Amino acid sequence: MQELYKKLKEFGKVRLNRTMNKETTFRIGGPVFALIEVDDTEKLVKLLDFLRGENQEYFILGSGSNLLWKDDEYEGVVVKIKTKNLKVENNTIEVDAGVPLAQLVDIATQNELIGMEWGAGIPGTLGGAVRGNAGAFGGSVSDNLGIVRVYRDGEVIELNTEDCGFGYRESIFKQNTDVILSAKINLEKSDKQKILSQVQEYLKYRSGRFAPYPSAGSFFKNLPLSAWEKDKDVLPSKFLEINKIAAGWLVDEVKMRGFEVGGAKVSDEHANFIVNFNSSTQKDVLDLIEDIKVKVYNKYGIELEEEVEIVE
């Protein structure tokens, strides 16, 4: 293991026996053998080549904002991508996977480019956003995505949007081992004040809306209206307009808002947020979400699906 540690140091900053509760917004997770932060794409590719050649297990980490990590030890290497290059050319922004969404929104606004406002206030990196096709307020990252550069089986390749299998909070990257390196975001020119006003409106909407405890954001995926097989008259009219059912509404309807298991709790502020209010473990969260899913299924015949990635 000492030789592996020495080799890893060639590619970035290495921490041994790092606990993942310090690396995720949920503040949940046990120890890992090694965590390496890499801030250069060329070094990242070389590191992935090395790990692949050594048959060394690894996990790709962005900001840790949509992740529920396991309580037990992970004996592999966690690769934390902190690559930071960002370049604006005409109406296109080329951005590394490690760039925070907040920075991307800011750069787009400064350059009078419209289309990324939905990302205001969302934690996470560009790489994580592409992997999960992150979105809000009716927009998502795939709406304006051009080329995606990925590391696949020892090669760096470019994918078009059609190659990425995007769906609601879905992409092929959730099903394969591709590592997202960078992407090109194609936007349009607009009035800067208009863009800024929209960004501020979204930030205001988010302010004070969520619990002041660690979480991983929205836990369950919203559902298509077609999943509802009962009388639609009982649904809020907004759901009929947007053709979706909010998962938080379902959690509310089965009286789980504020429900606790161990240190985990359904947020009082937003029923689709599970919060770590008292030194929660992953097991606490898993037990809680199982209770939620059973109650929703028993009442409505609907199976809730997690939006948060669970590492077990």
SS-derived structural category = alpha+beta
CATH class of the largest domain, named Alpha Beta
Low-confidence stretches: none
How confident is the prediction overall: mean pLDDT? Answer: 96
Give the CATH architecture of the largest domain.
2-Layer Sandwich
Strands in their spatial order, largest beta sheet: 6-7-13-11-12
Characterization of the model:
By secondary structure, the protein is an alpha+beta fold. It has 3 domains: 2-81, Uridine Diphospho-n-acetylenolpyruvylglucosamine Reductase, domain 2 (2-Layer Sandwich), CATH 3.30.43; 86-194, 2-Layer Sandwich (Uridine Diphospho-n-acetylenolpyruvylglucosamine Reductase, domain 3), CATH 3.30.465.10; 211-310, Alpha-Beta Complex (Uridine Diphospho-n-acetylenolpyruvylglucosamine Reductase, domain 1), CATH 3.90.78. It has helices spanning 2-8, 41-53, 101-110, 126-131, 192-206, 237-242, 247-253, 282-300, and strands spanning 13-19, 31-38, 58-61, 67-68, 74-81, 86-89, 92-96, 113-114, 135-136, 139-140, 145-152, 155-159, 179-186, 188-189, 215-218, 223-224, 244-245, 260-261, 264-266, 273-276, 309-310. The strands form 7 sheets. The chain has a 5-stranded antiparallel β-sheet with strand order 6-7-13-11-12, with helices on both faces. Strands 1-2-5-3 form a 4-stranded mixed β-sheet. Strand 19 and strand 20 (273-276) form a beta hairpin. The longest helix has 19 residues, at 282-300. The radius of gyration is 20 Å and the shape is globular. The mean pLDDT is 96.
